[in-house]
Specification:
Layout lengths: L1 H25 L9 H11 L10 E5 L7 E5 L7 E7 L17 H6 L3 E5 L4 H6 L7 H16 L1 H4 L1 E11 L1 H11 L21 E5 L7 H7 L19 H10 L5 H7 L12 E4 L20 H13 L4 E4 L11 H9 L5
Length: 343
């Protein structure tokens, strides 16, 4: 009987120890700390790109589709304000207008510059609707949003003669397409929004794809593999390398679409000033070399800058190792162009 008592007491003690160990192991204060790099990643993930404030007007429709909505941040001013239109990135496949990430929203508003952030229809939705080429939807949505904003000039206190675009990655490509494309306004249209101009005062972009021509891109960077999805070569589950190979092989068949929707095709004299920032560049930008991130390489900006320089268009290029001598960042550039100092 006494032996049984000792056995039971020992079993109970072991159980209590196990419970205590479990409690300590799962306690946030006493459990093993994550590695420093994990902490840094979590911190970076949680930290917002820029200070954000609620929009003056949220989810305002500029079209019939659920994605055709925008947010408007109104700058306080007794006179009409300039406007910056933010176009989010995500390869035209995903993303959202929720956070204006390529410029300092607060600084622009404090400088009396209003800001609009737009959503647009994605490429998979264009594929589903059999739109050809699929990129027509996100690019022309950006143009329509710009026209809609100009149509609100009186109501929202906007100076429609001072309008800029900004964005990252695919949003940057859209911004450049707007900046360099001929005016898409239709003066004879019965739709008052369609009669508004799509021309820009300037554009400041981050990680922009400046061209969408497969052969041109491969001549610049032999490991480029971006752009096929814009012209109908995307298939669910297919990797980007195979997608680009098909695009490259059939490039001549979609050349008319490339001529219309590749920003580089529209670069010409009379285009507005541009600021091209490539923060992901990890070495000097040289044509013909493979790049760690060809989709967002400064080689893209370099080639556009060279073409525009020949046309006499003001173009600023910045990446790690090469600063722009005139402007520290895109926000400063936009403020200088939209609110120039009066003599």
């Amino acid at each position: 009987m006494r032996s049984l008592f000792f056995i039971l007491r020992r079993a109970l003690a072991c159980t209590l120890v196990a419970m205590l160990i479990g409690a300590f192991a799962t306690s946030p204060a006493l459990s093993q700390a994550p590695k420093p790099e994990a902490k840094a990643k979590d911190k970076a993930k949680d930290k917002p790109a820029v200070p954000q404030r609620p929009p003056t007007f949220a989810n305002v429709p500029y079209g019939d589709h659920e994605r055709e909505v925008l947010d408007f941040y109104k700058a306080e001013s007794t006179t009409p304000t300039p406007l910056v239109v933010y176009i989010h990135g995500g390869g035209w496949m995903n993303g959202d207008k929720a956070r204006v990430g390529t410029v300092d929203l607060k600084k622009l508003l404090d400088q009396g510059i209003s800001v609009a952030a737009i959503n647009y229809r994605f490429l998979p939705q264009a594929y589903e609707a059999d739109v050809k080429p699929p990129v027509k939807w996100p690019l022309e949505d950006a143009a329509r949003a710009l026209q809609f904003l100009r149509s609100k000039a009186g109501e929202w206190n906007i100076d429609k003669t001072r309008v800029a675009a900004t964005g990252g990655s695919a949003g940057a490509c859209s911004s450049l397409w707007l900046a360099m494309h001929d005016d898409l306004a239709k003066p004879e249209s019965t739709d008052p929004v369609a009669r508004e101009s799509t021309r820009l005062t300037c554009a400041a972009v981050v990680g922009a794809q400046t061209a969408l021509d497969a052969k041109q891109l491969r001549s610049w960077m032999p490991n480029m593999a971006y752009g096929g999805h814009a012209f109908g070569f995307w298939k669910k589950g297919q990797n980007r390398t195979d997608e680009f190979r098909t695009f490259y092989e059939h490039r001549d068949e979609v050349l008319p679409w490339i001529k219309e929707y590749s920003p580089h095709e529209h670069a010409s004299a009379g285009d507005p000033p541009l600021y091209l920032d490539y923060p992901a560049q990890d070495k000097p930008a040289k044509v013909g070399e493979e790049q760690r991130d060809p989709t967002h390489s400064a080689v893209l900006g370099l080639m556009l800058q060279e073409k525009l320089k020949q046309e006499g268009v003001e173009t600023h290029l910045k990446y790690p190792g090469q600063n722009d001598p005139d402007y520290a960042n895109g926000t400063e550039f936009l403020i200088a162009k939209l609110k120039p100092t009066r003599p």
